[in-house]
Each structure stands twice: as structure tokens, then as C-alpha cells.
Amino acid sequence: MTYKGFRMSRSDFVVTCAAALLCVSVVGCERGAQLPSGVTGNAENGKLLLRQYGCGSCHSIPGVAAAKGNVGPPLDAISKRVYLAGVLPNTPQNMARWIRAPREIDPRTAMPNLQVTEGHAQDMVAYLYRLR
Amino acid sequence: MRVQLQTLMLVLIGLFAGALIVGAVALYAGFYNVAATHQHFRPTFWLLQTGLRESIERRARRIEPPPLTDPALVDRGLALYHAQCTQCHGAPGFPPQLFALGLTPVPKNLAHAARERTSAELYWVIKNGIKMTGMPAWEFRLSDRDLWAVVAFLRELPLISPEQYALRVNGETRPSFPTADEPRKTSDPERGKLALEQYACTTCHRIPGVVGEQAPVGPPLDRIAARQYLAGVIPNTPDNMIRWLRSPQQVHPGTAMPNLGVSDRDARDMAAYLYTLR
Question: Residues of B164-176 as b/e, b for ≥16 C-beta within 10 angstroms?
Fold first, then answer.
């Protein structure tokens, strides 16, 4: 009986440990930095606009149809990138500035000025900041 | 029931003893390679990173940060950071010293760490250091106010462009010591892969096949062989790649990528590896 009791509690212990490990690993995966403030645009619209402006011909962008370009850098997890274009700290405001007037920030960049309006840029930023 | 359990116990004890013997033989025969040029296996690296993160998080949980936005505090933090931290961690566009590139684990890029970590966690790490990593404890070196000053500066670091950083340290640059090595005609992608580890490239880039932090400070280098532009400004040709790896600050002034004193041979080998990433 004592053996049986011992065995039961041990198996319980094993199950508990496994469950705890599972919880820890799930929590570990879910954790991340808080979303930076300043994202105001409409992400769904932004996704559409990224396609409309042809961003995908130069960049690969997860979730945007046919966006598989490899002229400039891939934009997966772009919200976590520390610098934009290698020169600009990545904040939502700076990203919108960069999208609207890349050559004002870096005169030598290959990225063209596509006449993106402020509202459109904000929407694109909202989508890109979802890529974590 | 009892017999089965006894057999099980015996098998377990046997396995445990066997593991002990194998472990002891491996330990005393010197099988474990302690070379800093020998990066951890991927699972080991993951295990160490995870343990590190969890340990820091647990210990920083009860720390309450003071207000950190006072500009004087941030400036004090910048002065301390520039004098005491950049040797290993560098700064935007400002390289670490040569010795730091050869450390395993290689010191992290702190603009990225500051984005991912809370103030309490940064404070805990600076105060207590981290065993077996080269990160020293600053508790007995800096006052509590100065420890927080460094944290206050780190909070701002991800928002400072390379250009602004240079201005704030009065244009100071690190003297470079270009590595002199005999030029070679051939290149070796396998050696290039090791060189990418040894120049700390994974502290800022995701590079397929290279074990390391793979922090997203700069762009990921997946499919870099087929990318059309480097740094957004020059066409991706082998010669340009070598030039970019050796003197990023000349190719693209204002870039966050520092000059790391890469030799011609090392740049050639790195390029050879990078061009295998199609």
C-alpha cells in the first residue's frame, strides 16, 4: 500500500512537473517587449496599401501577397529591428518619415520616394508594427 | 508489482551510474572543448540563453526603478557608458575594442537589449554582473545613483542615431588597428562562417547557419547572396561586399554598422560564406 501510495504521488509529481514545464515554455514564447506607443493607423488598410504601392517588389513582407522582393532587406519582424536603413532609430514616427521621404533621411538610398501620404504611411506603419 | 518496481529501480540506478562514469571519463579526458572559437551547439546555446533570461527576470521582479528621465542623469549615464561599456558593447556606429570580438559569449548589442528588457532587469545585470560571460558586477564600482544613471541612458540608447551618438561624444572615434595578413587568392566559406562569429556579426544580424544571438539590430542576412543592394546604397557585388564589410563607415557614412578592423582575407572568407545564402 505504501509502495502504491508512493508510486501514485510520484507519478502525480511527474505530471505536475511536465505541466509546469509546458506552462513555462508557453509563457516564455508569449513574452515580449511592449508595443511602442505612437501606432495610430489602420493595420488592415496598411496591408492593402503595402501591396498597392508595390513595396513587395523590393521587400519580402510576411502576409502581403506576392511580396517576395530581395532588392532591399526583408521586413519580417521589422517592429523589433533597432535601426531603419541602418541610420535611423526604429520608432513608428521615424518609420512613417522614412516611408514618406527616404531620400531626405538618406540621400544615397536606393529606396525611391513614392509620394505616400501621411495617412497611408501611418496605416503601413500599423501593419509593419504587427510583424513581431 | 513489487518485483517490477525493484527491477525498474535497479535499471534506473544502473543508468544513473553509467551516466556518471561516462560523464567522469569525458570530463577528465578533456573532451569538452573550451575554445572561444568553438561556438556552443545550438541546443546548448538555447539552454544557456533561456537560463540567463529566466534568472534575470526572476531576480529583477521586485526592483522598483526610480524616475529615469532627468536629462542630467541621462548625461551622467552616457559619460559612464562611453567610458566603461563601449569597450565590449560598442555604441551606434562605434565599435567595441578588438579583444571583445573574441569573447564567447560575445557581448550583446545594448540598443537591442534595452528595447527588450525592463529598467529593473538592466539595473540588476549591471549591478550583479553575469557569471561565466565576462559581464562584471558594478555594485562595488559604482554608486546606486550611477548604476541607475547607466540604465537611464540605456533607456534612450535605441532612440539615438549613430550620427547623434557621435555628436554627443564629440566625434571621438576608436583608433583602428587593421589586421595585417597575407592576401590570398582563394576564399574559404567555412572559415568565413567562423569569422562571422568572431567579428560578433550575430549580435546585430540573423545569419542562417551561424549560432549566436541573431539580434535584429540590422537586417537579416537570409538570401543575402541574391539581395540587390547592400546597406541600401551600393549594388551587391563581391567587391562591394568586401568593401562594405571592411569599411562600412566609409561606404555609408552614418550607418550603425561600425568598422570592426576586418582584414582582407577575413572579409573575403565572410563574403564567400554569405554568398552561399541564396
Answer: ebbeebeeeebee
Taking the CA atoms of residue B113, residue B119, residue B123 and residue B124 in that order, the dihedral angle to the nearest 10 degrees is -80
Helices and strands, number each (H, E), in chain A:
5, 2
Task: Give the confidence band of A36 by pLDDT, cuts at 50, 70, 90.
Answer: low
Q: How confident is the model at residue B31 (pLDDT cuts 50, 70, 90)?
A: very high
β-pair partners for B135: B130
All cell numbers assigned to B145: 545613483
Q: Which residue of chain B is at minimal alpha-carbon distance from A70?
A: B227
pLDDT of residue A18: 54
From residue B194, how far is each of A31, A61, B262 by CA, in Å? 31, 30, 13
The values of phi and psi at residue A89, to 5°, are -60, 135
Give the pLDDT confidence of B207-248 residue by residue, as tens digits: 999 999 999 999 999 999 999 999 999 999 999 999 999 999
DSSP of B55-93, one letter per residue? HHHHHHTT--PPP---HHHHHHHHHHHHHHTHHHH-BTT
pLDDT range class, residue B184, cuts 50, 70, 90? confident
pLDDT at B128: 98
Domains, chain B, ordered by start: 42-168 (1.10.760.10), 189-274 (2.60.40.420)
Contact predicate B153/B165, CB 8 Å:
no
Q: pLDDT digit string (tens) for B80-119? A: 999 999 999 999 999 999 999 999 999 999 999 999 999 9
What is the interface size between A and B, counted as CB pairs within 8 Å?
A: 92
A5 in B contact zone (CB under 8 Å): no
A105 — contact with chain B (CB < 8 Å)? Answer: no
CA distance A123 to chain B (A): 22
Grid coordinates standing for A110?
536606393
Cell, residue B190: 567555412
| Locus of grid cell 540604465 | B151
Q: Test B255 with A86 for CB contact under 8 angstroms.
A: yes
